[in-house]
Amino acid sequence: MSSSRKRNKEAKKNYDQKYRREHRARYWATNSIFKHKQSGFDVEISVDFLEDLYNKTEFCQICGTKLEKESSKRKDYGNTPTLDRIDNEKVIKEDNCWIVCHSCNTMKGSHPMNQFLEKIGKIIERFK
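^ thats the sequence. predicted structure below, dont judge the formating
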């Protein structure tokens, strides 16, 4: 690779990192919508709507833990914000999405909320 290509590649990388830091909410919203569409989900929300929701949501809507919105290089995404469908049978619309922590979203998976809560209840009972 030529030295000018290496410089351009490095400049783009630096620009991307700066953009992500300065426009964290917009970057997160754009990326979340893109990934959901890429995974085959029907998405009927705008980047503007999701960016606004991100900015308004400080805590996981399931467990109440403060969301870690600052960039992290660690492999444990635990409390980082993720987009989730409230009712997994429906498309991602303004009235059917919320922001939850990565841990809760991973545990909930594709289960309806009532099934997820029932499962959590059984786990709690087992370890009392």
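The longest strand covers residues 81-85.
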